[in-house]
Amino acid sequence: MSPWHDPPAFPSEVLQIAESQWIFTESELLRTPSILEGLSSEKERENRGKGVNFIFQVGIMLKLPQVTLATASVLLHRFFVRHSMVDAPGRPGFHYYSMAATSLFLATKIEEDCRKMRELVVACVRVAQKDPHKLVDEQDKEYWRWKDNILHNEDVLLEALCFDLTLEPPYKILFDYLTYFGESDNRRLRNSAWAFINDSCMTTLCLMFSSRTIAASALYAAAKHCGTDILDDEDGRPWWDMIGIEFKAIKRACNYLAAVYENVHIKNGRDVSIHERTPEHVDGSTAKTRATGLGSAENSTADGLDDVEQTRKRTRNFSVIRNSEEKRCRVTNGHVAVNGIEGHQSAPNASVLVPTDEDAGDDISEEGEVES
After folding, report:
1. Could you write out the DSSP letters of every residue in 243-310?
2. Whole-prediction pTM value?
């Protein structure tokens, strides 16, 4: 009896081509308009993160789903690939909070989860002023300043995106992967992977990897965090080959986000790694999260274990649960998780970048003025 469900559908060719046009290398992302005009790469990444943080806080206030917030963050990152945050003679730079509000406004239309303009503007003013209960009058200059900025910048944003609004957020892809491998009921694994994708929105990961690769990387990082192994198929292929993702890309994405988590901690003049890295030069034959067996053709390992013993060793402390109704089985950790996925809730003990009010309102005047 096969432990896998129907494989997740591959994206259409049109969607793949559209997404590939927005994939860049790390060296290319060091030549964005903001950096070329004198802004340091660290400051640009910080400003991008503040913009996404602003999106998350406004979205929480408006009770928007996570998919809409992720779409808005992708639009914001793509915009600043073509436009600068830096003021230049005769041309003011685009403020990341102003463009964050515009990106969220457009994302609500794309995901068909619209909010009234007044609700959006009021939420933006409250987050900018760090006052969630602030009374905002529609006749105030502050209200109209934000509204005019959003409406004006919407055209600029659409032009920068070349009206390419075809997006595939990684959340649904992740759930398809979990369902395919029979792990959709593993809440701890699911929450950890969900937290990984939430945190990736703060970074330029969406400009370096496809949504499918980000979802696979989230599953890999979560499986390592939770100690979960996923069985090879009958032909001995690891799970990432079954969904058509290169293991090298998964390792690069995980290591990139690990560096963001650490933010290059320095101790006694040396780099200190607090997150386990995945060596990028090693193949996936001995990778964690992979449970060989079930028809795998792997031979005995260096310590003399045969196929059966090796499988038993890798899957120790795991139980195989057979569900007669769905006629499937899955390998899952014996630990009982009690946290569900809702909003921005993260896995227990996971390192995540949780939006806070700490940076809200930076570079915004007391009247809430932003540069257009």
Report:
1. TT--HHHHHHHHHHHHHHHHT--EETTEE---S----TTS-GGG-TTEE--SS------TT---HHHH
2. 0.71
